[in-house]
Amino acid sequence: MARVHLFEARGLTLGPQELTESEQDFKLMWLPMGDALRAVDEGRFLLPAGPLALLLAARRPAGA
Asked: In this structure, which long-range contacts are made by residues 28-36, counting pairs with CB atoms below 8 Å and at least 24 apart in sequence?
C-alpha cells in the first residue's frame, strides 16, 4: 500500500527548479485548474490520487 500526500497551493510564483539527485527524473508541470480538470476528464493524469484531489479542490471556493 502506498501513501500519497497532495497539497493545494494558490497564488504562487514560479522560481528556479531545484531537484535533488533522486528527483532528476521527475516531471513537474504547472497547470491552470481548468487545464488540470480537462486532463482528468481525458484520462491523462498519471498520479492515481490526483484526479480526486483536483475535483475536490475545484469544488471548494478560493480562500476556504
From this structure: 33/57, 33/58
Q: Give me 5's grid cell.
A: 500526500
Residue 14's Cβ-count burial label (10 Å; 0-12, 13-18, 19+) is exposed
- Sign of the dihedral through C-alpha 49, 46, 32, 38: negative
Four-residue CA torsion sign, 13, 26, 21, 5 = positive
How many angstroms separate the CA atoms of 55 and 27, rounded? 21
pTM: 0.56
Q: Over the stretch 9-44, which tens digit does the pLDDT of each residue have?
A: 778 888 888 889 998 887 777 778 888 888 888 988
Q: Residue 64: which of 13, 5, 8, 14 has the closest Cα?
A: 8
